[in-house]
Design goal:
heterodimer, A: alpha+beta, 11-stranded mixed sheet, 4-stranded antiparallel sheet, 13 helices, elongated, B: about 220 residues
Chain lengths: ~450, ~220
Amino acid sequence: MNVVTRGIRNAFRNATRTISIVLILGLTIGLSLVMLIANQAVDSKIKQTMGSIGNTVNIRPVGFSGSNSVNNALTTEQLAKVQKLAHIKSLSQLLGSNAQTEGTSSSPQGGAQASGPAANNTAKTSLVSPFKLNCDKGKCSGGGIRLNTTGEAPKLPDNFSLPINFMGTNQPTNPSNFEASAFKIVNGKAIDGSKDINDAMISAEMAKKNRLGVGSTFTAFDQTLRVAAIFESNTQTANSSVVLSLPALQRLTEQPGVITNAIATVDSLDNLESATSAIKDSLGSAADVTSSLDQAKQAIEPLKSVRNISLYSLLGAVVAGGVIILLTMIMIVRERKREIGILKAIGFGNTRIIFQFMCEALTLTTLGAIIGLGIGIAAGNPVTSMLVSNGSAGGQGAPAGFAQSISGPAADALESIKATVGWEIILYGFGAALLIALIGSSLAASLIAKVRPSEVLRSE
Amino acid sequence: MLRVTNLKKIFSSGDTKVVATNDISLTIEEGQFISIVGQSGSGKSTLLSMLGALEKPTEGKIEIDGQDITKLRSHALTRHRSKKIGFIFQGFNLIPNLTALENVMLPMEPTDRPKKMRMQQARELLDQVGITGAKQRRKPGKLSGGEQQRVAIARALANRPKLILADEPTGNLDSKTSKMIFELLRGLSQSQGVTIIIVTHDLALARQTERVFRLQDGKLTEQ
């Protein structure tokens, strides 16, 4: 039998004590693992949320909602100034216009009002929208169009069809134009946003609906346009749009020099706030300038408090585990003082004896870690969800009983948190057990070193 | 083999100083079987602790085979105890969760002998002291007092020490068992040439050793 075996065997000398200590340690390590799992899940969500919230700034003429006509359009000169501002990586200039499928109508009967990038139109096109209008509780939407009603479901004409949004832009492949995170040309070649030619890009869904391919033609604004490329994206707005170059759409809609909105991409999220302020200063009262920063802050704030709570609880649980094993080892060392004296008398050095007690502590904590892992795996997800829901409901400064309302990406971030237990967590669990054993053995080691074997003889 | 010169041990407790052993000198030859008698508090255990390199004297020298052990550092003292000294205690002091065999193997562990060899030697030692067969696999709690002391003697012999220090080895045993243990120790001293120093209250037993020393008020005198 060697030191390690003896240390492991000693851990089971008193079955009742061993079971009690292992269970308490299991709960402590389990709690620390649950907190670690919650911390990692929340941390990962914060990073994901930060990454998914675009570092873009939307610039629109004052009062322009996308559905009304543009009387105070932005000018190229104004936007040229914006482009030169610090931290502006790129500036996508857009003109949105819509056209109705020939022989159809998009005007609902009754008091409903359509809004969205493609509402209200007189221009015609041969294209048919690949999407349908879906109504629920008096609100209808589809293909980037929204119908706001006064409560009753809108009555749609028999020949109703969603209008087609035509988007002219100097950056035809920029996903931010459609509030999308993905935009990929799957067939053909992307158009040049600066050339005034009748080439268009349509989505794969639009192409399928209208049986078009690269090189096919369709009509819009009384002109024939050629499909130069087919793309795929992850928003309905993008998939229901036809993308043209900015000068081409300005010519087709007879709106030379008109820009209905622009999207500035900032070099990093850290500079988003300062860049937004700079754009506001540059354009003054001529434009409404909004960024996604506020939403990002709203989403991250409750998650940050959950992350802090879980971090402090994790540290607390590890310290508690350390204290438990520390007190246990002190108790064991005091109880076996005579035995330590005997071992020293028969030629065991301090290092060997301390190592034996460390093996004993490690055995107890490893067993605790195994139980703790079970608790962590079982309780990781429910506790994370509970922490997140409590963290979001009891918002800072909110009076008792009043939940702070979070919506948009913030709500998405909070709702979709899912904790996972991987090898990393298991290794952390055993790492924590090792740390707790080391903390617990430290004072015991100094007590062992102080035991004088002569005292054992004297106390006979 | 063992030479003690002007050995003095003073314990300090606040302003009070207690002289446990005072100017002790003695020489013991290899293989001698001697006893030290004295009343409680006479300094017997302190003297034994110093001879066994468990405690350092305030003054004086302890030479074992010409080496002054009072000058050794802590690590060297541990090695010295492991190789040259065997202890036998009144209360046996066996490790309760180890078998008799494992208890005897214990002192051999720091010597880095292979496990197989340690086990073989421990078996031989237990056979030698009369613990045989299944009793070797019993834990101390399942052995009688005399058997436990036999295991303790086997443990003391584990590393073939030159000096065995026995503190009241028969103190917890009945007279019949005491006599058997005493005879066992004397036999070992004669057969293996081990120097044995026994501390005892039992004058009758002490008189059967080769030399008897009396410790009184810290002073050692040969009877």
